[in-house]
Write a structure and sequence with these properties.
CATH architecture of the largest domain: Alpha-Beta Horseshoe
CATH topology of the largest domain: pyruvate-formate lyase- activating enzyme
Helix content: 25-40%
Length: 413
């Protein structure tokens, strides 16, 4: 119980210091993707991209005033494919936020290898985060690799096959000093040997940060359909074909194989000097993703753009995902249509535990009173999966391997 007069901080309360901008455009949608994104081809309409940047400016002014946003600690441009906008549009967009960025603010831009030409690399290396004296902390670029195997990337439905290692080297050679790689494991057809080859490339490239996610196959995606009918051609729609003699259907590695891959990734990157600071994230000293850390600690955050999510106080809203509808509302001086959810005490407490479990952060037991099964705490602590200290609980490094299952055990319902 909480002592009289002592207020426990609930999730998502306080001033807004973190902004996410969702850039919903991709040249082609990958087969595994279920995010809010719109395919625009290899030659996107410049007017469409211009309206998007103008929409972000209008939405930022409206939401900044509504929520009294004064100082930003992090800004994250995600997607979709932010790098598709090109250096000039990205620079115009960053100018909207620079007056509000603290001197040590972190700006992240997601990029796909096919966009990393010499011009993009030069811009990424030179772009300052904030203006004024003491500025110059470099832009953070998160490069989507998925895998260094062309065959595995093709299996994921990646239409563009630019070499991610070459793109990474181009950024580094240009002087980009804060680089992250995004990869996946559990890809259909991936073997232990494939994984070791990806690990070897990562160790050779030596990125500042690595995000290595287990592939989740979302229902309704082309990849899910292909796994259900593995001998049906992907393009065009195709019809069922007789499998080649001796062939096996496409399928992801089994549960035990995926668990082994996960353990191998953690082991290899830890030995290479990376801090496993979150379930799927690794960083060299001083290079943790501060925007993502903020999410896991459950402060309020503001999302801009089609399909973007915001959570402030006890309310969460999601913008309409259609770029045209979103842009038209803002051009007319109106707020974009959005779905709104009011978060009750139990929902906020449950999310607080789930997020904290990902990075081993301590949470006050009093903050979790609405959802915690006290009887489950002792056995989990005895198993070394959680740790108790001074009225707080955290998921241990051992428990992080199965963080979701640990949280389910801790939930009262």
């Amino acid at each position: 119980m909480t002592a009289p007069g002592v207020r426990v901080r609930a999730a998502f309360e306080g001033p807004v210091h973190h902004v996410y901008v969702h850039v919903p455009f991709c040249r082609a949608k990958c087969d595994y993707c279920d995010f809010a994104s719109t395919a625009v081809g290899d030659a996107p309409d410049g007017a469409l991209l211009k309206r998007f940047v103008e929409g972000v400016a209008a939405e930022w002014e409206r939401e900044r005033a509504t929520h009294d946003v004064r100082r930003l600690h992090t800004l994250y441009l995600g997607g979709g494919t932010p790098s598709l906008l090109g250096p000039e549009r990205l620079e115009r967009m960053l100018e909207l936020f620079r007056p509000f960025l603290t001197p040590g603010a972190e700006i992240t831009v997601e990029a796909n290898p096919e966009d990393v030409d010499e011009a993009f690399a030069a811009w990424a290396a030179a772009a300052p985060v904030a203006g004024g004296a003491g500025a110059g902390r470099g832009l953070r670029v998160s490069l989507g690799a998925q895998s260094f195997s062309p065959e595995l990337r093709e299996g994921l439905g990646r239409r563009a096959q630019a070499d991610p290692a070459e793109a990474f080297r181009r950024l580094r050679d240009a002087g980009a000093s804060n680089l992250s790689l995004d990869l996946m494991f559990g890809i259909p057809g991936q073997t232990a040997v494939d994984l070791e080859e990806d690990i070897a490339v990562v160790r050779a490239l030596r990125p500042d940060h690595v995000s290595w996610y287990e592939l989740g196959v979302a229902s309704g995606t082309p990849l899910a359909a292909r796994l259900e009918a593995p001998f049906v051609a992907r393009e065009p729609a195709g019809t069922a074909a007789s499998p080649p003699e001796g062939s096996t259907p496409l399928e992801p590695p089994g549960e035990d194989a995926r668990a082994d891959m996960y353990r191998r990734i953690v082991q290899a990157l830890s030995r290479a000097g990376y801090d496993w600071y979150e379930v799927s994230n690794f960083a060299v000293p001083g290079r943790k993703a501060r925007h993502n850390l903020a999410y896991w600690r459950a402060p309020p955050y503001l999302g801009l753009g089609p399909g973007a999510v915001s959570t402030i106080g006890g309310r969460r809203w999601t913008n309409v995902p259609d770029p045209a509808t979103w842009a038209a509302a803002l051009a007319a001086g109106a707020r974009p249509p959005r779905d709104v959810e009011d978060l009750d005490e139990a929902t906020r407490a449950r999310e607080r535990l789930l997020l904290a479990a990902r990075c081993g952060a301590r949470v006050s037991l009093a903050e979790l009173a609405a959802i915690l099964d006290v009887g489950a705490v002792g056995p989990l602590a005895a198993a070394g999966l959680v740790s108790l200290h001074s009225g707080t609980i955290r998921v241990t490094r051992k428990g992080r391997y199965v963080a979701g299952a640990v949280c389910v055990r801790l939930f009262r319902d």
